[in-house]
């Protein structure tokens, strides 16, 4: 009996552990990508190499492990996969990097934390997330989502006094050049469009998994289409600059390999697995956690100073994540095969009645 309880606890904890580890991996990608982009690597080329590596790594696993579960490819499924390969690998990633160039990495990272709010709204519109404001748990999800976004903004906009950490004592604050208002507006618009594109990607991935419930194969297809479509964009944008494609045994190769395997290959796969049981909002709700991880890693690796505003923002983010997790804890698991047309993706139950956490079949 005790072993069964432990197994049940592990099953419940697995989605949380998965998305936290995913954010750790994404934080590592941010640091590596900033380094190579500052050295002049083209963001268009980086996107292509990243997904080419992901395709080569994930395709053999998809071919072997999805033999029995891979459904027949149809024109509609292929269209969805093509759109998935465009939304996140091409549009979102390139716009994020461009927004970073117009402003700063910190500004771009903070702007990207509006992702949970956008995903929440889209998931509600498409019936992937149920909200009843009279239910305390639904209100917790809404407030928690807003809190994670607000905490990320506090980390960026509120500075405050320096916190003397023992590993940063004696380190001078890095020089940060300001950006003019026009560049800031351009950067904000590009990153916001990228966030919207990524939120659409998450919703479409959840919808596609209904009719194509083979996570490894879907991941491999997304990476392949992202490589092809990204290559077309890169060839147009880097026309007459063949040197942009040069790569050797250096940081460029490391960044493309790491981000391809960890962030694209494993990231899309883990996101799809967790999404089937917890929904797209749950996956994106943890994205502001990456900002905390980047801030901590920056103080250790680059000896950057930690400010009180960042610490307070991190506390708000953690509180918001707790509310989202608490609100989602009573959500029912998505069934493995969902109705495609005319029905909501959520189970047909009420999670509260008269503001209390009771269950009523409808």
Taken from the alpha-carbon principal axes, the silhouette is globular
The parts where pLDDT drops under 50 for at least 5 residues are 173-178, 332-351, 353-362
Main sheet overview: 2 strands, antiparallel
Average pLDDT value? 79
Intertermini distance:
33 Å
Percent range of helical residues: 55-70%
Question: By helix and strand content, what is the structural category?
Answer: mainly alpha
Describe this structure as you would to a colleague:
- With 362 residues, this protein is mainly α.
- 69% of the residues lie in helices and 2% in strands.
- The strands form 2 sheets. Strands 1-2 form a two-stranded antiparallel ribbon. It has a two-stranded antiparallel sheet with strand order 3-4.
- Helix 1 packs antiparallel against helix 9, helix 3 runs antiparallel to helix 7 and helix 11 runs antiparallel to helix 12 (308-328).
- Residues 173-178, 332-351 and 353-362 have low confidence and may be disordered.
